[in-house]
Amino acid sequence: MTDSGQERYRFSEAPIWELQRKYYEELGMQAWKNDQVPQYITSNPMIGTGYAEMIFGFLQDRAGMGHATEPVIILELGAGAGRLAFHVLQKLSELMDYAGLPLPPFTYVMSDLPWKNITGWQQHPGLIPFVEQGILDFARFDAVADTVLHLTESGKVITPGTLAQPLMVIANYFFDSIPQELLYVDEGKIYECEVSLQYPEQSDKMGPSEVLRDLIPQYHYRRAEGYEEESYPYREVIAFYQEKLEDSHVLFPAAALGCMERLRALSGAGFLLLTADKGDHRLENWEFAEPPKLIHHGSISLTANYHALVCYFEQKGASASFTEHHYKNLNVGCIFMLEEPLRHVQARLAYRRFIERFGPDDFFSLKLWIDQNYDTIGLQQILGFWRLGGYDAELFIQSAERISSLLEEASDEEILDLKLGIGRMWTGFYPMPQKYDLALDSGLLLFEMGLYEDSRHFLTQSLQETEDEPVVTVLYCLAICSYELEDLEAALEYTRQALVLEPEHEEALDLLAALSGD
């Protein structure tokens, strides 16, 4: 390791944040390829359903209060690969169509810092229909500085005081990845933890992710009376920590608080924040805390201080909801910074039903166990969990081999439920930067089930979308499907194509003889 000169930085101003920004700006949506940056836990259909129910409840509340005509803006911060927005909009549209209630119009605005992400969203086939319906728009937003939203598709500009309805904000895996202050509290005094960085050798030849991975932070303590002065905007939260904490390192979310205050200024009616993160809202989790470790996953992240967010906004009249039980992987909560927040009954009930009772963290914990035990569970259990997960493609991909092994004993009802699930999964599939041939897996499993028309549909789609040379197994299955559907001309063509790839393929030769009348 080489010494960087041991220059000390305020933690929120350390070069790690510029490296973080550079990483996302260089990669764009490719940052989420193969889960280099985690996204599944905060972007699957199950959490999308919960958020859609919260939004639906909030729209009901606004209509019930007589605010049914002004549009509601739903702003997602750090929308990343776009998968959460897709699932939320799909489930929300289903709810609204099913209920048929008079609700306020809404626009879901996906935002992020890199322009590459916005370009990717504009071209994504899963998002384009929502843009065409006028319910989805995009904006570049810098959480550290911006005060205005410029919407790329409609051209609208949202400035302070523009919105009549409260702003709804979604922030998943966001507050843990933007600059934070690092404070040390002891004996009623506040110290700032400055950081110096040891860089890896040849860091000038490494990419941002590699440098972030190998950086070694060292902390230095400096008395910081400025946080204790009455003029400090978050003085009351700091005073609370001075009174309650000893020998504790606290990641203080000044940037997050400033971001939410600037967003709050867009509407005179306040905001509703819905957020999920590795974040602690309980004071005891900050007691006697050690200096933080940088969690590396392509980029870096830290623990979000939900306690400070809740403490600050509750002092201003907000009501916050977090689960009574402790979270394991993902803490999901909401802050109602609204006039008479308790009157928003439908949104609060939705949180109770879809987060508190059994929520995204519970689902993910259960998924981790099932991932390790697919070879021991039955088809009914797989189907039940698949339904619970909103017919998610990832669950199907992981269980396809096990499902195949259970088909011989499957009932007619289970076969029909598998067919139904595959159809719903395909409707809710959001392709990520990494390529996976879901149509192929679906088609092959349907072939095993004897559902030849459905199988041919998916296998044909797989052939059309793949850039690779066709696989002989796929061509042979298509030949059999066509034969069973009495499309003998297509069966003959697929059989000949299969034999071009593998002239000695016995089953294809037998099929060719049968089709040729030999």
Automatic annotation (TrEMBL):
Gene Ontology molecular function terms on file: methyltransferase activity
Alphabetical UniProt keywords: Methyltransferase, TPR repeat, Transferase
TPR repeats: 472-505
A Pfam cross-reference name: Methyltransf_28
GO biological process, one term: methylation
Gene3D superfamilies for this protein: 3.40.50.12710, Tetratricopeptide repeat domain
SUPFAM superfamilies, per database record: S-adenosyl-L-methionine-dependent methyltransferases (SSF53335), TPR-like (SSF48452)
Keyword Hydrolase belongs to the record: no
Protein name (record): Uncharacterized protein
Lineage: Bacteria, Bacillati, Bacillota, Bacilli, Bacillales
